[in-house]
């Protein structure tokens, strides 16, 4: 997704869910890169987003 964005991909035309993107970003780019405490903080933020932003598309943000 980040590669598409860097190449000019229009997120406003996308139907990707914010929570799916956030979870994927965490799993690919952040998990295991820093301390376990940092992973836990970001994981909690992802879980918060999944609870309160369910069904919200990136283009709606």
Task: Report what the structure shows.
The two termini are 16 Å apart. This protein has helices spanning 2-6, 18-30, 36-52. The chain is built from 3 helices and no strands. The protein is mostly helical. 2% of the residues are buried.
What's the SSE blueprint?
Elements (H helix, E strand, L loop, with lengths): L1 H5 L11 H13 L5 H17 L9
Nutshell version of this structure?
By secondary structure, the chain is mainly α.
- Gyration radius (Cα, Å) is 13 Å
Low-confidence stretches: none
The main β sheet shows up as: none
Mean pLDDT: 85
**Order of helices and strands, N to C?**
HHH
Put simply, the count of helices is: 3
Please identify the structural class as seen in this structure: mainly alpha
Measured between the Cα atoms of the first and last residue, the distance is 16 Å
Q: Beta-sheet strand percentage?
A: under 5%
The helix content is 55-70%
* Strand tally: 0
Shape: flat
List keywords for this structure.
mainly alpha
